Amino acid sequence: MKARPTILDVAKKAGVSKSTVSLVLRGNDAVKETTRLAVRKAMADIGYVYNRSAATLRSSSSGLIGLVINDLRNPFFTQFATLLQMELARNGFATVLANSDEDPKLQTRMIASLVEHGVSGLIISPSYGDEENAVAVLRSANIPTIQTFRSLKSQGKSFPFMAPDYESGGRLAAEHLLEMGCKRIAFLGGLDGRPVTEERMSGYLAVLAEREMAPLALTGQGTRSFGKSLAAKLQAEHPDVDGVICFNDLVALGVLSACIELGVKVGSELRVVGFDDIEDCQDSYPSLSSVSCNIPDFASAAASQLLAWVNDGDAPRMTARSPVRLIERDSSGVRQTA
Description:
alpha/beta; 434 Repressor (Amino-terminal Domain); Rossmann fold; elongated
């Protein structure tokens, strides 16, 4: 008896990927019309019939959760992914992890692949760009999806969004540096125009505006190498800066390492505050002050809300912000006690 044609047979006949065939079967409007026609013709040629009810059953009972992260090289996201996976495992779900590496087109393909493999829900820390295509895939999939840390812009349906209170974090950092006696505070790192950069910078800008102080923002990649280059730039072009708030801890750690080479005394001549409070902050020299996003609690909350949605149909509210706090260490100086 001849074997029944499969989705792989359709993909081979049409000359496309398995994920593309899956998108066509789900009626996703992100697929080009020429590709859609080719897939439909291949299905007709080989006699493939899509069993939609079986596909739905697989999706609802797979026990798999898809996790798409924008940059697993960053220890902040690695910690989140690890803690989330452990929390999901404690509740009987396995995690399928994908790293988009800040590539929006790769992100869309990975989301489509996870959907095709029948994940019961998705948690995404999205890469910026190609938003409409990513949202189209998610809309077509119609499974519980939560965005974390960043949010995809869309003209149509959106998805619940969870993030730390970045604005409060920037405010805490700026107020702390002012209390430590800083007269000129700069914000370092984060790409221009990115919502996450604007949010992390907003509290800093508000505090300076309240005190009628001029801001200084030197934006760019959120990496150690960029932070290292900024330390030299500050010394050469902005020698009056005596305090910095960094977009993330990687930028701040780059500043610290460069200051040692430049002979700048961190904690007195230059006070430094990072953002995220990754584990390296405790072990750097000097130890790095940072805005903590309390990732263990955040990961637990994200898992809890997604599972309530998957298991009980209890969708979370559209926007949720979690509290942050400032962890003071040596890089921003030691408070004088009375």
